[in-house]
Design a protein that fits this description.
The protein contains four helices and seven strands, in the order βαβαββααβββ. By secondary structure, it is an alpha/beta fold. The protein has one domain: Rossmann fold (3-Layer(aba) Sandwich), CATH 3.40.50.300.
């Protein structure tokens, strides 16, 4: 699926639509440059999961947990990780077993651990406009904006 958005609010709306159809233990693998809109997308994803928490970038914490929705959302930033071995060292399997959604920024650093992930590619095509491509996962045909 491909979406073109013209504002951060529209990017969040695509994330929200995806959040509404996700199932427990879903993994989202983000692809996109710095400033592409991954955290904005995650704000919408959290809203789609029913979370009321304030969503921020996990850049300095590696993972932010949002527990107020219909299932937990674990927002990872893998920028500082060098391999999937380091991902397992921080308890990746424990997060998967908790039945929430794992949204992973800089997923290319741990790609070999995210084999069944839904890939969300976000590309900046203008000041506020983005091209969002969502691939993989079951039930994605149910996304409705």
């Amino acid at each position: 699926m491909e979406f073109i958005t013209a504002s951060p609010a529209e990017t969040e709306a695509v994330g929200e639509a995806l959040g509404k159809v996700l199932k427990p233990s879903s993994v989202i693998a983000y692809q996109g440059d710095l400033g592409a809109g991954k955290t904005a997308f995650t704000r919408g994803l959290a809203r789609g999961l029913g979370a009321s928490d304030r969503v921020t970038s996990p850049t300095y914490t590696i993972v932010n947990e949002y527990l107020s929705g219909r299932m937990p959302l674990f927002h990872f930033d893998m920028y500082r990780l060098g391999s999937s071995d380091e991902l397992f060292d921080i308890g990746w399997e424990d997060y998967l077993e908790r039945g929430g959604v794992c949204a992973v920024e800089w997923s290319e650093n741990v790609a070999d651990a995210l084999l069944d992930a839904i890939v969300v590619s976000i590309q900046k095509i203008g000041e506020d406009s983005r091209r969002i491509i969502i691939e993989g996962g079951n039930g994605l045909a149910d996304i409705c904006l």
